[in-house]
């Protein structure tokens, strides 16, 4: 997952989720809390991704459901205040079979 222009993530921030992933670890002011906030605030987006018909409606501008940024009173606060760019999210779903299963 790559996030750009969300809160403190002006430059693209890449997070790789792998089997056994349990925690975010890093120095202070590295963006750990902002990343958790992103996952909470955009939880509805991830729910839409699980429902192809709702996602298709959004992509074709037939918005039967509005996407809300959860727990945010002013949506502008979710954007980086260091530039005017839109929030960008890239999701790369890939799967590699574990070495033990490969033949």
Structural class: alpha+beta
Question: How many β-strand runs?
Answer: 3
Helix-residue proportion: 10-25%
- Biggest sheet strand order reads 2-1-3
Strand portion: 5-15%
First-residue to last-residue Cα separation: 29 Å
Describe this protein's structure.
With 103 residues, the protein is an alpha+beta fold. 24% of the residues lie in helices and 8% in strands. The chain has a three-stranded antiparallel beta sheet, with no helix packed on it. The longest helix has 10 residues.
Secondary structure elements and pairings:
Blueprint lengths: L1 E3 L8 E2 L17 H10 L1 H7 L2 H8 L28 E3 L13
Antiparallel strand pairs: 1-2, 1-3
Keywords:
single chain; 103 residues; alpha+beta; 3-stranded antiparallel β-sheet; 3 helices; 24% helix; globular
Briefly say what this structure is.
Helix content is 24%, strand content 8%. By secondary structure, it is of the alpha+beta class. The longest helix has 10 residues, at 32-41.
């Amino acid at each position: 997952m790559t996030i750009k222009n969300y809160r403190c993530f002006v430059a693209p921030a890449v997070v790789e989720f792998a089997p056994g992933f349990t925690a975010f670890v890093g120095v202070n002011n590295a963006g750990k809390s902002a990343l958790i906030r992103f996952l909470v605030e955009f939880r509805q987006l991830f729910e839409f991704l699980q429902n192809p018909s709702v996602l298709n409606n959004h992509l074709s501008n037939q918005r039967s459901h509005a996407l809300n940024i959860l727990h945010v009173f002013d949506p502008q606060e979710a954007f980086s205040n260091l530039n005017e760019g839109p929030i960008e999210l890239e999701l790369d779903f890939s799967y590699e079979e574990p070495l033990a299963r490969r033949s």
